[in-house]
Amino acid sequence: VGGTNAPYLRLSNGSAAIMQNWVYGGRTYGFADLFPSDSTAVRQFTISICFKADYHADDNRTILYTKGTGEAAEGGIDGISIDVHDIYLGTESVYKLTDNTINMVDIVCLQTVTDKPNGLGGTESVKTYVLKIYLDGVPTVVRTYYSFPNLGEVIYLGCRHEMDGINDVYYNMCDMNIYNLQIHDTALTDYDIMIKYINNKVLTSYT
User: Fold this and answer.
1) For the chain, give me the number of helices (H) and strands (E)?
2) What letter does residue 176 receive in the DSSP assignment?
3) Res. 2 pLDDT band, cuts 50 70 90
4) Distance separating alpha carbons of residues 100 and 203, to the nearest angstrom
5) Is residue 129 over pLDDT 50?
6) Which helix (H) or strand (E) holds 156?
7) Nearest by Cα to 182 from 18, 7, 47
């Protein structure tokens, strides 16, 4: 951020941002490629964003969106979306938000092992993925899935994206400020999330 620039990313008038081509360990990845699907991999992540969406009569506006091609594996969810008034895990609205106010949202995916009935009167150990939603540093929603989320190669900011044949279609555009955005390939703890909240609170108190 330069000395004459605002200390946030401003999206407005139909503009949006795309995050792709992640450079990690000397290689370039799509977002979903950061979480390999081999049997020994630990697939975890944290998405942290601090933003303020402008007040607008249109409710169909998206802050952050990622979704893979095809359908989610059985027991999983098709993408993640933070909209102006809702947080979606797949197609389920799990929490309501308010525009024209600063929101600090953290989405944490924690891989665990759970005993599940095997249909033969016993149990078997299976991987599960616990998704936790934090608002302003406080855990508010927990969901457990039996498959890793169907994430896209790209993270879209200020819109959603679909393909119409060979054409890109961008919609649900949103005018907003993004004060902080961090992506981690690990599941942050409650303590980590609260420290982020305090730092974001300090940052947005002076902007």
Assistant:
1) 1, 16
2) E
3) very low
4) 17
5) yes
6) strand 155-157
7) 47
Tokens of 79: 């993408």
Per the structure block, which two tokens stand in for 200? 């974001």
Cα 111 to chain center, whole Å? 16
In this model, does residue 120 exceed pLDDT 80? yes
Cβ neighbours of 35 (radius 10 Å):
18
pLDDT at 148 over 90: yes
Name the helix (H) or strand (E) containing 135. Answer: strand 123-135
Judge contact between 43 and 35, C-beta under 8 A.
yes
Contact status, residue 125 vs residue 115, Cβ threshold 8 Å: yes
Q: Which tokens is 21 given?
A: 């081509």
Nearest-angstrom CA–CA distance, 152 and 168: 15
Per-residue tokens: 105? 């949202």
**Phi and psi angles of residue 115, each rounded to the nearest 5 degrees, phi first:** -85, 125
CA distance 155 to 17: 8
Strand (E) or helix (H) holding 200: helix 190-204
The pLDDT score that the predictor gives to residue 1 is 40
For residue 82, give the nearest of 58, 70, 57, 99 by alpha carbon. Answer: 99
Query: What six digits make up the tokens of 85?
Result: 């008034």
pTM of the model: 0.89
97 and 103 Cβ atoms separated by less than 8 Å? yes
